[in-house]
Amino acid sequence: MFKTKLIIFTMLLFFMAGCTSSYKLIQTDGENVEVEKVTDKSIEYLILEQDRVAISLYKDPTQGSTTNDGSDLNQRINSKGVLVDTSGNIVLPLIGKIKIAGLSQSKAADKITNRYKKYMNSPAVYVEVLNKRLFVLGEVKKPGVIDIDKEKMTLFEALAHAGDLTDSALRDEIMILSNRANGKGMQLRKVDLTNFDKMNYASLMLRPNDIVYVKPNNWKAFRVASDDITSPFVTITKIAAPFVTLKYLFD
Length: 251
Fold this sequence. Notes:
Elements: H1 2-19, H2 40-43, E1 52-58, E2 75-83, E3 89-92, E4 96-99, H3 105-116, E5 124-129, E6 133-138, E7 144-147, E8 153-154, H4 155-161, E9 169-179, E10 186-191, H5 201-204, E11 205-206, E12 211-216, H6 218-250
Helix pairs in contact: 1-6
């Protein structure tokens, strides 16, 4: 009888060990993991549809302070920013519709500036994307969305914003899911924070909209899987306990 119970218990352990993989996200067999060469150009953010951009327009002070419709151009256009529509366009005073999706902030500013030159002397335009952010998930103390106020952020900065790694974090296999620099498809890369010799500029740099996932170690995954399996038995035991106690008292 004891041997039978031991065999059943052993089989249950193997079953739970096999279930631990379902607790981990973004799994791969390793064949599709790539490391893209990161340069200043590839890190530069390209404006996307549904982005909200702040546009400030400055013009020659000798000109009038308002447009024909009475709006002041020596200030930010729309204090809440301008939404890029699904076609990649925005609508601005005087020049109307202009497409900026797919452009960097500096190139978008140049394009808008050239359009305004038809209407005023020496215009200067500043463009900034307001909703640049990245996401940190998994075994960190404060998972969530991190706002970025610059073109790039390092992995260490992102983890610091997320409150550091938990004790259950797998430190030698941080997963980073990114959009390709050309905008076509996604790529996945792994970063080992335990080995200084394997760290490089390319692996540590994050771009807006990157997803950082910190995997749990095997023990954490095993504990979660075992809790899922044993929790029904714990619930049944709690429900049955009063009836067993009553039966014992009556007997």
